[in-house]
Amino acid sequence: MPASTTSETPEAAAAVRAAVARLARPNGDGGVVIERAAIVAEGRQASAIEGWIVAHGGEPEVPLLEPPRPGLYGPRNPSGRRFDARPPRRYVLPAHALERHDG
Asked: 52-56 contacts: CB < 8 A, separation 24 or more?
């Protein structure tokens, strides 16, 4: 299992993997999905969990809706924030991502 940092201990890596396994839910394609809200609810461990997901082939789910188009009848955006700058709602992992390879 690849470690996200060189200073990560095997116990910390096992705790992150256990959190991922606990938060994962099956999806219709044979893989698993983890809601970002559940990851954030883990507190300090959230960034390590997201790193583990990405390191093991997980990808952010692509939203189905396109950002609103600008124009006279388009929605106003007074904050100036980009619509595509939001974090993903959930992550999708392949079916083999949670299999143990270390015996």
From this structure: 52/4, 52/13, 52/16, 52/17, 52/20, 53/20, 53/91, 53/93, 53/97, 55/2, 55/4, 56/1, 56/2, 56/93, 56/97
Size (the chain), residues:
103
Query: What pLDDT, in 10s, does the model give residues 67-77?
Result: 566 667 766 65
Q: Within 10 Å of residue 85's Cβ, how many Cβ atoms? A: 7
Tokens 């007074």 appear where? Answer: 78
Q: For residue 67, what pLDDT is reported?
A: 59
Question: DSSP readout, 17-73?
Answer: HHHHHHH-EE-TTSSEEEEHHHHHTTGGGHHHHHHHHHHTT-EEPPPSSPPPPPSTT
